[in-house]
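Supplementary Text 2. Reproducibility record for the structural model of the 174-residue chain.

All settings were left at their defaults, and a single model was retained for analysis rather than an ensemble. We include the record here because the model underlies the residue-level annotations in Supplementary Table 4.
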Amino acid sequence: SLSTYAYVTIKLVGDNESSINMSVYDKEIEVTFIDTSNVSMVNAYTGQKLIKTFTIKNTGKGIAYYDIKLDSLVNDFANKNDLVYTLSSKNGAYVSETVVPSIDTVVASNIKIDKGDSHEYELVVTFLKTDEDQSNNMNRTFSSKVKIESSKGINSGEEIYKEGTLGRTITDNL
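Retained model, structure tokens:
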């Protein structure tokens, strides 16, 4: 089979990081974070909520596909179920309340973005307040970077819009 590869450059705006090259088909994606790509909760307390807003814009000449990943993840919570996240986009796509993982994880994959389009997201991380004793989770730490990567599905020939993926939800809601 014949494969063609070119590079996508992701430009991070509002972040002190350098650009990231991604192997996809001659596409350019600009990622803008409100402040930085870092999300962290240090000395956590019950009810604490973090909100990270970011925009992904396709500035290239064609369709691009990307994944949203929690990278360089640290989660030292004793009861992992007390720390959850949601991810939502302005067009209605939504990842429902999910336990924050302990390892680097792709939280949304194979998302299609057309030339000139922008996708705005809000990632919310919450230290749930329950009726149980949560003292074992007090003053714990969660930290991660929100990372945008080239979708692996587009290069490996996997189905891009698998049922249940955020990419499928976004296109269903267009």
